[in-house]
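Recap slide: RING-type domain-containing protein, sequence and predicted structure.
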Amino acid sequence: MKALLLLRKVRLSPALKVYATLPKPDGVREGSMPYTAWKCTTQASFAETNPEGAADRVSLLAIAWDRKVQVAKLVNSELKVYGNWSLDSAAIGVAWLDDQMLVVLSLTGQLWLFAKDGTVIHQTSFAVDNLRGDDLISYHTHFINIFGNPEKAYHNSVAVRGASVYILGPMHLLISRLLPWKERIQVLRKAGDWMCALNMGMTLYDGQAHGVIDLPRTLDAVQSAIMPYLVELLLSYVEEVFSYISVAFCNQIEKVQQVNDHSSRSSSVQNDIKEQFTRVGGVAVEFCVHIKRTDILFEEIFSKFVSVNHRDTFLELLEPYILKDMLSCLPPEIMQALVEHYSGKGWLQRVEQCVLHMDISSLDFNQVVKLCREHGLYCALVYLFNRGLDDFRSPLEELLVVLRNSQRESAVPLGYKMLVYLKYCFTGFAFPPGHGNLPGTRLPSLRAELVQFLLEESEASTSSSDRPYLNLYHLLELDTEATLEVLKCAFAKDETQAPDISLSDSANQLVGTESEFVAGGLKLIQEVVDALVCILNKDISQMHEYRNDDDKVADAWPSLDDMGYLFEFIAYFISRKWAKVSRDVLTRILEHLTSDNLVSAEVPENKEELLKKREKQVLSLLETLPESDWDAAYVLNMCENAQFFLVCGFIHTMQNHHLAALDSYMKDVDEPVHAFAFIDSAISLLNEADGTAFRSAVISRIPALVDLSREAAFFLVIDHFNSQSERILSELEHYPSSLFLYLKTVVEVHLSGSLDFTHLTKSDMANFPNGGSGNVHMKRLKDYLKKVFDFPRFLRNNPIDVTDDMVERYLELLCQYERNSVLKFLETFDSYRVEHCLRLCQEYGITDAAAFLLERVGDVGSALLLTLSSLNDKFAKLDIVVSEAMSGMKSSNSGRSKLLGTILKTKEVEDILQILNACVGLCQRNTPRLNPEESEILWFRLLDSFCEPLMGLSNGEKIAEEDHVGTLAEPLGSIDDEGPLIRWRISKSHRGARIFRKLFSRFIKEIVEGMIGYVRLPTIMSKLLLDNGNQEFGDFKLTILGMLGTYGFERRILDTAKSLIEDDTFYTMSLLKKGASHGYAPRSQVCCICNCPLTRGSFGSTIRVFNCGHATHAQCESVEIGASSKGTPSGCPICLPKKSEKLRSKSAFGEDGLVRKTSSRRARTEGSTSVGAHENHNDIVDTSYGIQQISRFDLLANLLKDHGPIQIENLPPLRLAPPALYHDKVKKGVDLLAGESSIDPSKMERPTGSNRQFKELRVKGSSIRFPLKSSIFGKERTRQQ
């Protein structure tokens, strides 16, 4: 019995260990029941999700809670949630089907099959007929939720055994079974869904099928197990579909034979049959490729297609899979059949592409090579030899044989294919394109091998010459330029770059030293050059032989263009010292390069560029070769005729003729940098005697150097001739244009501190064949450009001195050569004599600049008159333009609108608008400095200038045009102020009167818009209505409406701003009033100083209460203040010492007010520092206020000052009224606007005598003249009325 009791005690006390606690997921309904399911699996089956786990076994926990499902794993005593998803309805059961699948039942009768990561595998309903709701599955209600209500619990109502799921209902048992993999395919197969059945088979083969429990674990074992069935499935599909096609289309063919249109209908039926077989074959090919059973494809499936006479259909199906690299090998008989079929169809390029995508090791090499030779698949042939045998020479040999034996038409494409192949091999890329790169170690030997092949003797007939005919000549004869460009690539650097298929692109990046070549590289280059020289020697005899036969000369090779390519190719290698030629050949090369005969392919627009390139080739040749190899005098004569000035300068320099060299360099106007680089180098290298003479010669050539490049000439002067600047200026005085350019550069440097030397760097150094390496000329050029780029630092160490005489001389020249730049110079430069500059501007007729100077000295009226002086002539020109336009226009409204738009774009209208904008800007700048009457005279004179043309004569006549302004060289006082400034008028009989009215309405509108803000609006309205009262209102309708709209808009803005200010002021004042006027209650009934009660008869009759709650006797406070040596109270004597540090930086109370300067929202609690006193016999005594005249704004300012406290009884009561409603104010503003616009014009004073007033404005120098050199372009102020 004791043993029994001991055993029961052990069972009742298990050892529990908590690994983890999972919180309830978000969104779970309170009181819902959770359902769990455990599954223990091995680590191997879980490796795909946790490959690094160390435990042998892994426990999986599935939790279904309301609509949330979680999957957690327990590994090494650690529980982690790695799966979490939601359901459409609440879960009522969960169970593991295996370690990869989870069964979940929902309250709505749905059975879900999930993967452990939450992927839905299958969904079905387990509801039985006539069973709904609670009858679906059994439950109990023994559990109570947190609200005390019973909850339905469905625990232990779902169980899994093997592949079956058992669901226990109240009166029934449901069993759901998971089908094995073979039965799944059979179900689809019996239903006729072959595509889904085949897809299921491929999914099983890939190991991606879910819910499969009767297959091995490893993928290889699965594939071995299902392979026989997959093969049987495919063959059954093909057999059944073939039978269906045979039955269906045989009946259709019999029907077609009975109709009259037999041929067309039969063709349509055959196309349909072929389409059906194509679909079947496509499925079979893709399925076999997927399961890697191409043997089934090329045996059973192919034989079936052959049996129904659709072999060609099957072969055509293979092409897309071959091009996608899905089929990389074919059996020999299939390959032969494919080539024969495609060649019969003329699809050789397509079959060639198929060969390029195949695995050579899996092909019958000899068979495929034979097929490629028979059918001319040369790209495939090259690919086979290169990849299969690493043989790059044999394809060239075969192609060359074919090239020699072909006609011209078929040989050209083959020859270009050879050139592309050679270029790819020389540049290190595999052929055909897109097949990767060649090994870097193979490239040097490959280049030498292929070049050696090109230099070998050809088997072509050489009866016409005793010299051997090399393989290279065949390609040269095909395309000399392209062949030479490809040949250059053979001696390029070993850099793998993306090659350009275009053979005309040159290989620019070549090796620079002999050491970069492979062994024998220089020897190969010399052999190539010698072979090309043989062609040139052969050409001489051929030209003598055919000199009387033009047709033979035209057909003979090499042509003149080909010879040019050969000469340039040989010169390229000679300039790099990689090859040598005889003096005779060198002379011929120089003669060709200095001739003006360009090749026919070179377009005329590139002639200058090509000649410059040839010039630099000649220069590079002469710098490389010793002088004994060429005749200097002969070459100099040729270069002078060819205008190769760089070469001429080089030859003169070699002969120590430095001045002649300088003159040659100066003739090269396209690249002036060479002349200045030569001067810079010669000055530093010549001895003292030669250097002095050379410097004098340079100074005498300064004008020409300035014309060549003013920036470089200026740098030359300050670098080498800074002490002789006076002499240089005197030398330039005889050349005004050169002096102007030089002074312009000086002024630019003075103003900006830098110069633009970009035009000097346009010289393309890459055009030199050797890229400047070891080239004396290029080294000199680089040294000079290095100094030029360091110009800012040089200028800081050597500042420029600009005198007043230089500035005035430059301004005079600027008036002569760049009239449009005078105004900009005067605006940006301020060190000049205004009177002298004004005289120059008047003398040369620079109107805008003269007006600027008049404005600067304060004569604004004369500036405005001068700006308007050319307006009359502009109106006259506009009249001519409008008349010409009206003469060719039909009278219609649409025509007039189009005509107006055209006239607005004319130069005459743009000139008038430019004058108008300049005058408006002048008036706007000077209005703030004038009194209102003077500014109105300025504005109205401008307005009158555009209003006067509208006042045409009633009889239709036009006032004669006279020269009323005179020349600008005359004094300003000679202008006839009494007469009208604008004499041109619009006649009523003018055909374009309507056009002119619209144009001038636009002009006047621009002026009025500029006046708004500077002139009072009533004054503008009075001017428009009174001076133009006899005109049609339509002329000014847009202008007046625009003014009123602007005024109304600004008035509404003003009313809105005023309302906002009033609202804010009221709110602030109300807060201040509340903070200053409410009462305070003491914290206790004792004095905070003497601790005596605040009762009647104790220490006097007055007490003081502070806003902090402390209360004191007035007598105690006086004693405390006296003890602290303060004459005035400064706050609570208890709180103030605690905040002494804060009070030193910022006062805690207002000096004259009641509140501290704090936020308005805190004023309620901290606003008051003292309150009124009360007598012993009265709790509170009313005190009359003595200051009743203080305004509210003064009171607000007083409250915000940092002053000490004062008694509240000394302040007046604050009587505040809320602001008016916003819409009432807006309405009032609109009414006011309407009232102002309805003022009777007759009651306004009409200004008269505008010309006389304007004259008075000009005479009153004290009011509108400004001090000399005073800036009038300060901050403008705007007057708003």
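Residues 1037-1077 form the longest helix (41 residues).
The chain has a mean pLDDT of 74.
(End of recap.)
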